[in-house]
Q: What sequence folds into this?
């Protein structure tokens, strides 16, 4: 506990030193609008973002595995219980069965859910297996598109810094590397 208090005091002193240096070069600064020095808050946002992206990556992996399983079943020459059962049993992601289970993917503000019925159940019920698998493939495609849209809109920090911070442009760097 003592070490934490000492570290916290040093962080506060470091923040104060940074503010004094900025004030010396830039004049009076409204520290409330900056939010640049709020490292704990930013660390929490980064950890949350990292956790969300990890969950999304796992969800994509599960969806792609389910997609491959559906495609393999559709390619079978004969749709009998034996051949379908083998593929259904192999359709797993991280040890979890993909058919007859709900895949839930957290997209931040919303939850994406997908449930593909077991082809074995559909066969035993006399349902149109090919149509059901095509529908599952379409749902998977829509889910992957939804994820792509969500990820493309994600930002760790919604409010940009108010100071003129330098930006990084990879094209400029690549041009410099070409001219060297």
A:
């Amino acid at each position: 506990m003592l070490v934490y208090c000492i570290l916290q005091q040093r962080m506060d002193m470091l923040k104060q030193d940074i503010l004094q240096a900025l004030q010396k070069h830039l004049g009076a600064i409204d520290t409330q609008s900056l939010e640049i020095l709020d490292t704990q808050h930013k660390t929490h946002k980064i950890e949350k973002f990292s956790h969300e992206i990890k969950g999304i990556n796992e969800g994509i992996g599960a969806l792609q595995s389910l997609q491959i399983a559906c495609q393999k079943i559709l390619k079978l020459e004969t749709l009998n219980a034996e051949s379908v059962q083998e593929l259904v049993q192999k359709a797993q992601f991280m040890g979890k069965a993909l058919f007859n289970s709900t895949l839930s993917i957290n997209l931040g503000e919303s939850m994406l859910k997908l449930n593909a019925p077991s082809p074995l159940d559909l066969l035993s019920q006399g349902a149109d297996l090919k149509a059901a698998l095509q529908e599952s493939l379409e749902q998977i495609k829509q889910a992957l598109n939804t994820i792509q849209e969500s990820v493309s809109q994600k930002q760790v920090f919604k409010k940009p810094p108010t100071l003129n911070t330098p930006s990084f442009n990879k094209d400029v760097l690549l041009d410099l590397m070409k001219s060297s």
About this structure: The radius of gyration is 26 Å.
